[in-house]
Description:
Low-confidence stretches: none
Helix content: over 70%
Largest sheet: 3 strands, mixed
Number of strands: 3
Amino acid sequence: MEIQVQELLETIKRDGVEAAEKQAQEIIASAKEKAEALVAEAEKKAQARIQEQERAVAQMQASGKAALSQAGRDLVLSVEKQLKLVFDRVVNETVKETYQAAVLEDALLAVVKNWAGKDEPGSVLLNEKQEKELTAALKGQLAKAFSKGVTIQTSGKVAGGFLVQEKNGA
């Protein structure tokens, strides 16, 4: 009987060990599945973050390029404006120096005499100083043109020289 008890104990022990090993295998398999699922989820999240960062970088690059392009346009406009101011100043100074009273008088006589033959009267615009000097000197010579509606006026737009303007302002 002792042998039977011994065999019974060994059987129970063997069955218990087998059951424990089977349960251990199931626990290990379950843990591997969970670990694989966690790794897959982590990889998925990591990939999503990488894509998000790539989009953010692309957007920042596009914004940077747009800002650089805008800065380039602003620079061109600024340089253009400054060049125009310099050019206008040089032209005005040159006109002031070139159109002294005698030259201006001859030019005005030619312009007004040509214009007097047209049906549309107009104005010659001068700066205030030149208008005072030339109106008196030219009044007799241009009486016919003045009678047809041609006028000499002052304008703040004229620094030197003169502007010719039709009556309608063109």
